Amino acid sequence: MEKSYDPKQVETRWYRIWSERGYFHASVTADDRPYVIVIPPPNITGSLHMGHALNNTIQDILIRWRRMQGLNTLWVPGTDHAGIATQNVVEKQLLGEGSSRDKLGRDRFVQRVWDWKAQSGGTIIEQLKRLGSSCDWDRLRFTMDEGLSKAVREVFVRLHEDGLIYRLKRLINWCPRCLTALSDIEVEHVDTAGKLYYIRYPLADDPATHLTVATTRPETMLGDTGVAVHPEDPRYNRFIGKSVALPLTQRRIPVVGDSILVDREFGTGAVKITPAHDFNDFEAGLRHNLHRLAILDRHARMDAAGLRDAEANATLRERLASQSVQKARALVVEALEKGGFLAKVEDHAMALGKCYRCKTVVEPYLSPQWFVKIQPLAEPAIKAVESGRIRLIPEQWTNNYLGWMRDIKDWCISRQIWWGHQIPAWYCRNCNAEAILETASPKSLTITSDAKPIVARTAPAHCPDCGQHDFVRDPDVLDTWFSSALWPFSTLGWPDQTPELKKFYPTSTLVTGFDILFFWVARMIMMGLKFMEQVPFKDVYIHALVRDAEGQKMSKSKGNVIDPLKVMDQYGTDALRFTLAAMASPGRDIKLSEERIEGYRNFANKLWNAARFILMNLEGSRAEASLAERPIADRWITSRLHRCIGDVNRSLEEYRFDEAAHTVYHFIWHEYCDWYLELAKPALAEKDSAQAARARATLVESFETVLRLLHPFMPFITEEIWQAIPHTGESIMVAPYPSPNKACINDKVEQDIEGALQVVAGIREIRGTQAIAPSKQLSVTVATPTYVFEQSLKNHHDLIASLAKAGTLTIGTAIKHPTSAATTSIVFPGGSIVEVGVDLAGLIDVAKEKSRIEKRLKELVTHMEQDVKKLSNPDFLAKVPPDVLKKTKARHEECTAEHDKLTGELRRLREMT
Ligand SMILES: [Zn+2]
Ligand SMILES: [Zn+2]
To answer: How far away, in angstroms, is 357 Cα from ligand 1 center?
Structure first.
C-alpha cells in the first residue's frame, strides 16, 4: 500500500471495475427479496450541487447497505426533461445567436432542445457516478423517452375517461414572461412593500354619496364588475342591491353582500370585485353571477379590446393601451386623483407571487386550461399515509402532508410552452371552426374553451361527429410534474405488464427534499394508487437543506457556494459522503463547512494508516481460536465491534444516518485505532507464540469487518484497503454486511478493560499536565474505592503498566499516595471514584514548576477580573450579542476551573518541599 491515500485514482479505478462487473444491476429473475429506490430525477439542465450530493449519498448508503445484506437491490436512475427550465436555457442560447423560438417554429425548436440534450444532458449523470452512486445504469430513464411518453398518454387518456381531466376557461397563475400557466405551487410568494389605495365609488343614483373601496391594484379597477360589502355591516348593508358608477368609465356596477370575500376589519370594509384578475374575486363573481372583464393581455399589458369592453373613458383608453401594469397603475391613480376619486394612499405590506423559474410577477389570467380533478385522487392518498402504509420520516412531515392534501385544489396541468409532452387531444376543424383561432403572421393558434376536444392515445382517423379527418392538435404541453408523478411505475415499464413491474413495484424507500413534497411526492402517491392500486413506496425519507456554515442558503450571488465537485477533487469523495451522512440530523438543516469535510478526510487517512500498521504486523501465522482463548484485548475489541455493528444497523433501519456515521467514526477512531491497536502490540510482538498467532487473527478479522461496516459510507477507500488485506470474495461491495453476534458481546470484559483504560488515560493526563517526557518511566499509585475495583484493575496490572509506561504500579483500597504525587480522580459510571497518583519526585524541577504555576495563576486572575467586570456591567449586558455573552461566560468558567486546579497543585508542591 502507498504511504498516503490518493483518492482520485482509486475512485475512478474502482467505479469502473464495479460497473464492468455488473454489481449495480438488479436481476429480475433473482429470488432474493427486492429493495428498490427510484432516484428523484435531476433536471437535464442540472449540474451537481450539494443538495444532489446529500440526496444521492443517502440513497447510495441505503442501496449499498441493503445490497450487502443480500437483498436484490435496484436503484433506478434517470433525468427529468424539466419543461420550462430547459426551454429557458435553449431560448437563451437562441437569443445569443440573434434567433428565437418563434423564428425557429415549434418542430425545429423542439429538435434544437433534443440536440442540446444530446450534448449537455448527460453532465449530471457523470457527476452522480463520481459520487459513487451505484445506480442500475442499464435502466437509465428519461421522462420524455418513448416508454415514459407512452405512460403519460395512457394516464392522460384514462383520467379523461374517468372524468378526472377537464378543459375549462378559468383564472390561473400566468407568467407573462414564460407565457405559460403555472400551478399554484410553482408560484413563489415574496413579501413586498406595496400600497393600499382608497377609491371613492359614487352611487349611480345619488352621486353625492359614495362607497370607498380599498385596493392594492388600482389599475384593475377598470375591470371591476361589482363592489362587495358585508351583509351584516350596518355601515353599508343599505347599499346592497344598488349600483355605483365606476369611476373613469361609463359603467354602472352592482353592490353585493358577500360575507366570504369581505373582511369588515380590512381597509374600509368595502371591496371592488374584479373577477378576471383576482382569484377570490373570481369565486365571488361566480357566487353573484358577475361577468368577467379581462383588461390585461398575456404579456400583462393593458389590452385595447378589454379597455373598450370596460367602457373606459376614451382619452384614458388611448393612454393606457399596451402599457405595463406598473405604468398603467400610475396613469390610473393620476386620473383618479384628478377626478377627485382618490381618498388616500397608505403603505401596505403584501405577498407578491413570482414565477419560480424566472421570478417575473405572476398575473391571475383568464384562459382555457386543462385541469386534473384532484379530490378523488387525494382521498386514497390521504388514507395511505393516515393508515401508515406510507411512512414519512421524520414523522413531523405527516401533518404538513395531510393538511395540504385535505385542502388541495384542482391541478392546472397545461403549459403554453413547446418542450414537454404535448397534450393528446385533437380538435376537428370542421366542427370547431369558430373555436379555432389561427393567424399566419405572427403565427399563433388559440383554441377557445368552446372547442370540443377528442382525447386519444393516437391521432384520431376521423371525427366521430362529422366524419371529416382534418384535425388540429392541442398545442399545450403537460406540466413537467405530470410525467414525474408516474416515475415509480413508468420507469419499470408500465403500462406494459413487464417482469420488472411485477418484481420491483411497489418500491421500498424514497429519499427526497421537503421542497418537492407536494410538487412530486404527493402526486406520485396519488398516481401510484390510481394506476397500480398500490402505494408507490413504503418509506419516504425527507432530508433537510444544505446551507453554509452560518446557516445561510448557498447562492452564487452571495459567493458562499461549496461545490461538491471541487470538494471531491480536494478531499476525496469518501470524505464528502461521510460529512453529509454525519450531518444529516433529522429535520435540521445542514450547516456545511470545509473544516468538517477536512476532518473526515483526516478520518480516511487515519483508516489508511491503521491499514498500513496492520499489514506490517501480519507476518507470521494466524491461528483460528475460539474467542475465549484469545487475549483479553481481542475479546474486548470484538465485543465493542459487535455492539457497534448492532448500533449502526439499528440507526440505518431508523434512517439515522448521522447516528450511524458517528457510531462507526467513534468506534474506528477512538476505540479501534487509539486503544485496540496499542493494546494488541504486546501480543503481536511475541512473533512466533500461539498468543501472537491468535492476536493476528483478531487483527485481520476485526479490521476486515470494520471495513465492511464502513463501506456504504466510504465505498472507495474501504474497497482499496479490503483488497490489500486477507479477505474472501471478489469485492467488498458484494460481501455480506456485518450483523451483530450476541455471543461476542461481553459486558464484563468491556467494563474491565474500559476501567483499565480510564486509569491509563488518567496517568497520561498527569504526564501531560506535568510535562513529563513520554520516555520516562513513572511510579504510579491507584487508590480504589472497593475490593471489587481493586481486583478488576489488578487483573490488568500489566496492561496498565505497559500502556502508561509505569515502572512501578501499585493498586489497592488502602493505598496512600506519596506526598510528592500529582493526583487525578476518575469518576466511574455509578459514581465510584478511583484516584490515580504519579510520583513526581525526581521527575520535575519543583522550583521551576512552582514559578510556572504562579505565573499562570496571575494571568488567570487578570482574565477573571476583566470578565467579572464585564458581566456585572448592565451596559455590557444590554448591548452584547448573545453568542458573545455565552462565550464570555464559558471563558470565565474555564478560567475559574483552571484556577482551582492550579491552586491545589501549588499547595501540593509547597508540601513537597
Ligand atoms: Zn416565468
Ligand atoms: Zn367534426
So the answer is: 5
Looking up cell 439515522 gives 656
Ligand 1 centroid distance, CA of 377 (Å): 28
Give, in order, the Cα–Cα distances in Å from 247 to each of 199, 221, 255. 9, 9, 14
Q: How far is ligand 2, taken at its centre, from the CA of residue 157, in Å?
A: 20
CA distance readout (Å), 475 to 101, 165, 166, 186, 438:
15, 17, 16, 21, 12
Q: What are the DSSP calls for 34-99, one per residue?
A: EEEEE--PPBTT----HHHHHHHHHHHHHHHHHHHTT-EEEEE-EEB--HHHHHHHHHHHHHHTT-
| Cell matching residue 297 | 393581455
CB atoms within 10 A of CB 712: 29
How far apart are the CA of 406 and the centre of ligand 1, in A? 28
Question: To which residue does cell 456585572 refer?
Answer: 872
C-beta of residue 402 within 8 angstroms of C-beta of residue 386? yes
Cell of 589: 438543516
Q: How many angstroms does the Cα of residue 184 sit away from the middle of ligand 1?
A: 13
Which ligand approaches the C-alpha of residue 464 most closely?
Answer: 2
Q: Tell me the ligand closest to 187's alpha carbon.
A: 1
d(CA 93, CA 88): 9
Between CA 567 and CA 574 the distance in angstroms is 10
CA distance 569 to 554: 20
Q: Which residues surround ligand 2, an ion (CB under 5 A)?
A: 428, 430-431, 463, 465-466
Distance CA 515, CA 256 (A): 41
Residue 354 CA to ligand 1 centre (angstroms):
8
pLDDT along the chain (913 residues), means of 10: 91 97 94 95 90 96 97 96 89 92 91 91 92 97 96 98 96 91 86 93 92 94 95 93 94 95 90 94 94 93 92 91 93 94 93 89 94 97 97 94 93 93 96 90 85 95 93 95 97 96 97 91 98 97 90 86 93 96 88 92 96 89 81 91 97 97 96 91 82 89 96 98 95 97 92 92 90 89 92 91 92 88 86 90 80 91 91 88 87 90 84 69
Kindly tell me the sign of the dihedral angle through the C-alpha atoms of 525, 528, 531, 533.
Answer: negative
Instruction: Report the separation in Å between the CA atom of 286 and the middle of ligand 1, taken as the mean of its atom positions.
Output: 28
Å from CA of 677 to ligand 2 middle: 85
Residue 552: alpha-carbon gap to chain centroid: 14
Looking at all shown ligands, the one closest to residue 471's CA atom is 2
Q: Which residues of 277-300 are buried (b: 16+ CB within 10 A; e: fewer)?
A: bbebbbebbeebebebbbbbbbeb
Q: Are strands 471-473 and 425-428 parallel, antiparallel or unpaired?
A: antiparallel
211 and 253 Cβ atoms separated by less than 8 Å: no
User: Where in 628-787 does DSSP place strands (E)?
Assistant: 778-783
pTM: 0.86
Distance 487 CA to ligand 1 centre (A): 25
Residue 787 C-alpha from the chain's centroid: 55
In the chain, the amino acid numbered 851 is S
